Amino acid sequence: MDINIKVVGLGESGAKMINKMIAAGVGKNKSVEFIAIGNDENIMLTSTARKNLFLNRDMTIIYKNIFDALSGAKLIIIVAGLAGNAARISIPIITSFARTYGAGTVAFVCKPSILENTSRKINADYALNNLRGNVDTLFVVPAEKFFVFCANRPQISLPELFDIADDIFCSGVKNFLEMNDFKFGEAAFGYGEATTALDAIKLAASFPTLEEDEFKTARKIFIGLKSGQPLPLSSIDAAKNFIKAQLQPDAEFLSREEINPLLGEKVFATIICKRKEEKI
């Protein structure tokens, strides 16, 4: 079977996200291959990805190995923290492959905290500049955003915080893999689960990765509703209208509903919002 979707984790954080996705069965019903790329041998040894690429010092070999690993990809999904060397080295090569072979590209990346040291901030700026304009959809989440998810846990440790970030990105990739449209430019995402479509969409709309004025300036928005059983049309319309009321008249609106019996009485909502301009 040809593998036409490749999910690439960069550095320690990317490798851990890949491990979580594999354990959770992300993409198990699709033609997906997981690849981890890093420069820490110990981290790479713990990776459960099908392919693990170690970044040595020979750029010619690195370039060839990444191109070979991505061969045949129609869609490449990048997951990474931007501050490390793995992102700085790999992202320009991955985007070069995508341009050369016409592969679609989506990136879920974390921008380092303002408390990070200068060299890591420089790495992140370089990597981000190589993503902007070179990928079809770019989700950038500043590290500070993840603190919002654990506001009621003031004593949370950094490993626990990173765990939360991994879970959020893993869910983002899982939901994105179920979509047919992967061209959103610079975008933001949110999701929520409740017992009604309206409550689920309200939770998704208040997801911390979305800015307060996100919908007012959005150029394009997608909402997805999954439920354990068919939803009443009035419930679907209420959820859609809640979002539409906040959009500009010329904003493109897309939606999809599907049934997943495993959800039982729950409704799961996803929002993807194309930003009018760079916010991060």
Apparent shape: globular
**Regions with pLDDT < 50 over 5+ consecutive residues?**
none
Query: How confident is the prediction overall: mean pLDDT?
Result: 88
Number of helices: 9
Q: Largest sheet at a glance? A: 10 strands, mixed
Strand order of the largest sheet: 3-2-1-4-5-6-7-10-8-9
> Structural class of the secondary elements?
alpha/beta
Strand share of the residues?
25-35%
Number of strands: 10
Q: Give the termini distance in whole angstroms.
A: 39 Å
Q: What is the gyration radius calculated from CA atoms? A: 19 Å
Write down the secondary-structure element order: EHEHEHEHEHEHHEHEHEE
Helix content: 25-40%
Quick overview of this protein structure:
The chain is α/β, with parallel strands linked by helices and 280 residues long.
Describe this structure in words.
This protein has nine helices and ten strands. The chain has helices spanning 11-24, 41-45, 59-70, 85-101, 118-131, 145-148, 158-177, 197-205, 233-244, and strands at 5-10, 32-38, 51-54, 75-81, 104-111, 137-142, 185-194, 220-227, 252-259, 267-274. A ten-stranded mixed beta sheet has the order 3-2-1-4-5-6-7-10-8-9, with helices on both faces. Strand 4, helix 4 and strand 5 (104-111) form a beta-alpha-beta unit.
